[in-house]
């Protein structure tokens, strides 16, 4: 992960820097993200943040499949390292903008779901692979249900890897606020962040809290159900691994 701060504009850019792994989050990166958000709470030179991924292939593809996440034996407990990777989970109420520059899928929605708004490159795509591999899409679907119409969330979650939502379609349904040509998405996000950062920060943070409070009750209730649905519906880890291993490399998918 890379962090760049511009004290003159008040904007920090956080870049997930694992392009060789499609910017998937290993446990070290997940921990580093949480620490970064908490640090920004105390850094008065940072008034707005842009979150993006290195390269042009992917913004983030969720948790790294190679990461080993030990689980408690109790069916009532699930350890999910991505629950604490977002800014709101770390009590950061400075505005965070996402610049999506390629694939955003699965666990990426933990991050996108806690950003104020999303800008996407024309070639960006969004999809949720959970059901394809025998997993319940719970936290991801709940996060997207705060941003997209019910039918669009259900379709993305249920279609798995068979279909990807284009940047244009994501704009049409409200997930994305702006589609940017070529590699200009980071610059467009930084420009928007600079505008926000130029305003009195107490008013900006208060507005962020106000917007979030409008949906927080429903979100909190839905999130509370998520671990139980995952415990009931997830295939055993060995079966998940078998499904993942048997997937067709380069298998066709539909972009809508």
UniProtKB/TrEMBL annotation:
Protein keywords: Isomerase
InterPro entries reported in the protein's UniProt record: ClpP/crotonase-like_dom_sf, Enoyl-CoA_hydra/iso
GO molecular function: isomerase activity
One Pfam family recorded for the sequence: ECH_1
CDD domains to which the protein is assigned, alphabetical: crotonase-like (cd06558)
Domain of life from the UniProt record: Bacteria
UniProt entry tagged with the keyword Repeat: no
GO biological process: fatty acid beta-oxidation
PANTHER family: ENOYL-COA HYDRATASE, MITOCHONDRIAL (PTHR11941:SF54), ENOYL-COA HYDRATASE-RELATED (PTHR11941)
Name used for this protein in its record: Enoyl-CoA hydratase/isomerase family protein
Organism: Streptomyces typhae
């Amino acid at each position: 992960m890379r962090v760049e701060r511009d004290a003159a504009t008040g904007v920090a850019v956080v870049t997930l820097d694992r392009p060789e792994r499609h910017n998937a989050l290993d446990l070290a990166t997940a921990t580093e993200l949480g620490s970064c958000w908490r640090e920004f709470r105390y850094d008065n030179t940072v008034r707005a943040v842009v979150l993006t991924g290195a390269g042009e292939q992917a913004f983030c593809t969720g948790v790294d499949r190679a990461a080993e996440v030990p689980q408690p034996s109790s069916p009532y407990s699930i350890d999910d390292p991505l629950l604490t990777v977002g800014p709101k989970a770390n009590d950061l109420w400075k505005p965070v903008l996402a610049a999506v520059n390629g694939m955003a899928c699965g666990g990426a929605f933990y991050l996108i779901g806690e950003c104020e708004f999303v800008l996407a490159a024309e070639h960006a795509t969004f999809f949720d692979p959970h059901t394809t591999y025998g997993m319940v899409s719970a936290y991801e679907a709940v996060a997207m249900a705060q941003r997209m119409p019910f039918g669009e969330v259900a379709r993305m979650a249920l279609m798995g890897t068979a279909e990807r939502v284009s940047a244009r379609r994501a704009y049409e349904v409200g997930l994305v606020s702006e589609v940017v040509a070529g590699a200009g998405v980071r610059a467009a996000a930084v420009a928007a962040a600079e505008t926000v950062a130029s305003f009195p920060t107490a008013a900006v943070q208060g507005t962020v809290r106000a917007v979030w409070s409008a949906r927080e009750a429903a979100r909190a209730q839905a999130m509370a159900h998520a671990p139980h649905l995952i415990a009931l519906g997830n295939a055993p880890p060995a079966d998940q691994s078998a499904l993942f291993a048997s997937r067709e490399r380069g298998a066709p998918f539909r972009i809508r």
